[in-house]
Amino acid sequence: MDPDTKLLFPPPTKSKDFTVTISEPLPTSKPLPPPPSKPNEALVILAKISDFIHEWTPFALVFFYFVFSTCIYMICTDAMIGIFWFVYMATNFYIAGTTVLEAFLSMEPCREAREAVCKAQEKGWKFPTPDEDLLILDVVIVAYLPNEKDIIMDRIHYALDEIVYPRDKIRINIVYNTPKSIEPLETEMQDMMLSFPHLRVIKVPNSTSKADNLNYFFTLNTGADVIAIFDCDHYPHPHNPRWAVERFIADEETDIVQGRCIVFNASDNLLTSMIAVEFDKIYAVSHPGRARMMHFGLFCGSNGYWRAEVLKRHKMDGDMLTEDIDSALRALGKGYKAVHELNCVSYELAPTTFPAFWKQRLRWAQGWTQASIRHFKLSLTRPVDHKRTATQRFGIFSMLFIREFSYYLVTQYTCLVAGFVITKFPKTPVELARLIYFQYPVSQWLFVISIICLIATLWITFRVRSEFATHRMIIVFSITYPFYLVVMATIGIFGHARQIVAYSSWNPTART
User: What is the pLDDT of residue 436?
Assistant: First the structure.
């Protein structure tokens, strides 16, 4: 998408009551059970202490990890520090080089997407496939109602009014769960089906998760050819479904089409602006670049389209914290073909407070850890029923192992610098140079080249940024990116610690 081109469609019967009167005691041959006794206070206190320890153990593990690592570097000799520095610089050079290569490879998909938009505009938004030949589409908007009760009606109206797709070939499905009845909202949603025949509102019984909601929907016989999954905070671009369906029609081997997610509340504060640029870097640079380099794409949870028969067989695993990542890796293991369509745009909300951001990313980090442990074998095995190339296996290894390992690379480098600042803070430019380069001249080149790779990646991100990411946001992101990496690496290690103690609490992202 050209950064100077604005999108044409920006987001913005009751039963009677009765009473039964019993005048005499009911006959019984057994004595009534005694009333339940009060719980033992000591056991209650022990349970609270146990919960407290379980809740804070991951924090303690991460805290002592940083303290212990920093202390180690404080007592190391200069020769040992030099070795550590060289190893970190060499590993960082590989990661930076891979990242910038992905960025350069993403430029062609971005150019192709921009050209496709220009052609569609010139033809008055007429697409290659006639309307009567389009696939039947189920759009599934998944909601956890207490958390999203303030935004769900707005999203329903948007989907009904703004999405451009033949009405006889699309259904808007609101699939939600709630632990308690929320009225009059639920009745209002049900009543809307009388006015919109292509709207279906489904309250999933006994559901406790997004995976439960989706798996229940997959049991319904809807007759759809394609199923699209959206979180409740999304505004799909009006032509979003058309771009995805055109990809399925153009290539019968395509099983999954993943669109580009854009943060539209980027201007709310510094945090949302950082997340907005990060999403541009992930969805417009990293994903399409990796797909070109490693020959596989990924379903990312929302704004993803599946062939219906594939998804109904595949289902979601409710035991995983991030069922979307698990489903993406299972699909990769089964040989399903996923592609990234940059014109299939959807707008979403970023967390506006750091606590909400922290909870969301911790869940993502632990979910990635779970999925990486479960599916790491994909990088080592080559199935007989379909071909998984050496390039794909290396890409999976890089994504599941090196990405998780990079959290320790970043944090260990941070601890190394902290140890030096505490014990040997440089007083002259010569000492500063020695702090940075040590006695290995080659580490100078590794350091400089890594910085160049970072700048190149950010420049390409700037070229493909969304209309909500301003020049100022890109500059601020570039300056603060090293610190942002440290925060993200800390969250990653926190996710590992939670997985070690089998932490399983799920905190939904707040929606406002």
Answer: 59
pTM of the model: 0.83
User: What's residue 36's pLDDT?
Assistant: 59
**396-446: pLDDT as tens digits:** 999 999 999 989 988 998 898 888 788 877 777 777 666 655 555 656 666
Burial class (CB in 10 A: 0-12, 13-18, 19+), 396: buried
> Other C-beta atoms within 10 Å of 433: how many?
12
4 falls in which pLDDT band (50, 70, 90)?
very low
How confident is residue 201, by pLDDT bands cut at 50, 70 and 90? very high
CA atoms of 440 and 450, how far apart (whole Å)? 16
Give the closest residue to 323 by CA, choosing from 300, 357, 347, 304: 300
- For 249-305, give the DSSP string: HH-TT--EEEEEEEES-TTS-HHHHHHHHHHHHIIIIIHHHHHHHHS-----SSSEE
Query: How many CB atoms are closer than 10 A to CB 408?
Result: 17
Instruction: Indicate the domain borders of the chain.
Output: 57-135+225-512
Which phi and psi (to 5°) does residue 163 adopt? Answer: -70, 130
SS3 content of the chain, % helix, strand, coil (to 5): 60, 10, 30
The string of pLDDT tens digits covering residues 80-93 is 877 887 788 788 78
Average pLDDT over residues 484-505: 89
Report the alpha-carbon distance of residue 283 to residue 1 in Å, rounded.
12
Q: Phi, psi at residue 293, to the nearest 5°?
A: -80, -40
What is the C-alpha to C-alpha distance for residues 446 and 139, in angstroms, rounded to an integer? 48
**Residues near 76 by Cβ (< 8 Å), separated by ≥ 6?**
84, 419
Section 48-72 average pLDDT:
88
User: Which residues, including other chains, have CB under 8 Å from residue 397's CB and lie 6 or more apart?
Assistant: 376, 379
In this structure, what token pair is assigned to residue 151? 């935004």
In angstroms, the CA 156 to CA 172 distance is 8
Q: What is the rounded CA–CA span in Å between residue 419 and residue 428? A: 18
Q: Which residues contact 250 (CB under 8 A, 6 or more apart)?
A: 128
Contacts of 111 (CB under 8 A, 6+ apart): none
Is 266 a residue whose pLDDT tops 90?
yes
DSSP state at residue 407: H
